[in-house]
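Reviewer 2 asked us to include a model.

Predict the structure of this chain.
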Amino acid sequence: MCRMSQQQPISDMKFTLTHQDSKSRARAGVVKTDHGDIQTPIFMPVGTAGSVKAVHQRELDQDIKAQIILGNTYHLYLRPGLDVLEKAGGLHKFNGWEKPILTDSGGYQVFSLSGTRKITEDGVMFKSHIDGSKHHFTPENVMDIQRTIGADIIMAFDECTPYPCEYGYARNSMEMTHRWLTRCIDRFDATEGKYGYNQTLFPIVQGSVYKDLRKQSAEFIASTNQQGNAIGGLSVGEPAEMMYEMTELVTDILPQDKPRYLMGVGTPANILECIALGVDMFDCVMPTRNARNGMLFTSEGFINIRNEKWKEDFSGIDPAIGGYVSTFYSKAYLRHLTISKEILAAQIASIHNLSFYLWLVGQAREHILAGDFAVWKDQMVKKVSTRL
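Predicted model (structure tokens):
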């Protein structure tokens, strides 16, 4: 198994704002962690169970150019389990990924188990989707679990409210999330990482789609003065314009000198619009999930590779973005693999879609630095929203 080549010194995560776009709120920056630097804006591939589906770590690094990936606390806690991860020396050594890792708190997965969980002030009782066994997540033990998983960035335990959601429920949930955050911070500050490198806690703004709640939550999260902040509870079914409105409201309040992470977003157009609103970090299962269903994102628009029109199209999948997979394989060949249900189809499509997402945020960064982001963004949103 791959091992870290040498022990790196412990240092606090640091965010440096490199450039601010003059015609939008888009920013370019650098997040420094003990496992390497992250150039923002950035998209983070989702590796739910310690693996980005159908993608090798070498491909993530060398082909996709991923700078940070995600793991999921709920799934990793259940399988392979904390004993295995701790014996391995943490998730980095277990899966061989030497760059930064972010873990979500597991809250979204737990709360999606609406029929098999019970929320109290103390935390959440839930049943495993694997074997029905009972488990208890609290703000304190979720900090401990993520310490043991070994992520560079760990998320506070929160409740992700559904959409639509009544105002009273959203308010009560937000207030409980704030109380849980205080407990998360207390536990996090009272403990240390297990593997010799720094870990950072990000709190999460909630409040559903209610302006006053979002404002209140953003102000509370900002007041805790953590090294980065996240925006949760969006991209859960609300209209895109509502998501943008809530994001703009929150980025107005969250501090300029801390990275901002919009959780679970989204389509290429969503990402571009939210970069323009001042968001730095994104994640979403869409590129890999859609890839497995034959939906490809390209620099000129999105395509259903199953369609007959690609049967004799021997051009590369998307030569404009470069990279081995997107230039070597033709649309016709990928269509053939997809129709034939060959496993290689999911691999090629997943690597391509993730390569496109990383290319897209890389292009956004270049245009922010060049000073023409706003014009480029408007043109690109139209392109990536076009069905080819």
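The CA atoms of residues 127 and 134 lie 4 Å apart. The chain has 15 helices and 17 strands. We have added this to the supplementary material.
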